């Protein structure tokens, strides 16, 4: 199991997520993002805007995801 913060995953806060795989971690982050969107949390909305601009370029999005995966892989197990 590894732990990452919302900020480490491109978000806006220090909430932590713990998962076995990067895919599980990404899903936890996505769910948190949807919750913050429903609450209209301004900091998270700004982070989502940045993510949407990344999504305009599949290459840039791929690089960003690879960087997050590498960060996950580099973290020690809990």
Explained architecture:
This protein has 78 residues and is mainly alpha-helical. The chain has one domain (2-74). It is 62% helix and 10% strand. It is built from three helices and two strands, in the order ββααα. Strands 1-2 form a two-stranded antiparallel ribbon. The longest helix is centred in the middle third of the chain and has 17 residues, at 22-38. It is globular and about 30 Å long. The mean pLDDT is 95.
Topology readout:
Blueprint: E1 2-5, E2 16-19, H1 22-38, H2 42-55, H3 58-74
Antiparallel strand pairs: 1-2
N-to-C terminal Cα separation, in Å?
6 Å
Strand order of the largest sheet: 1-2
Strand content: 5-15%
Helix content: 55-70%
Give the number of helices.
3
Average pLDDT taken over every residue: 95
Structural class: mainly alpha
Give the H and E element order.
EEHHH
TL;DR?
With 78 residues, this protein is mostly helical. Helix content is 62%, strand content 10%.
Q: What tags apply to this protein structure?
A:
2 strands, 78 residues, mainly alpha, two-stranded antiparallel ribbon, 62% helix, single chain
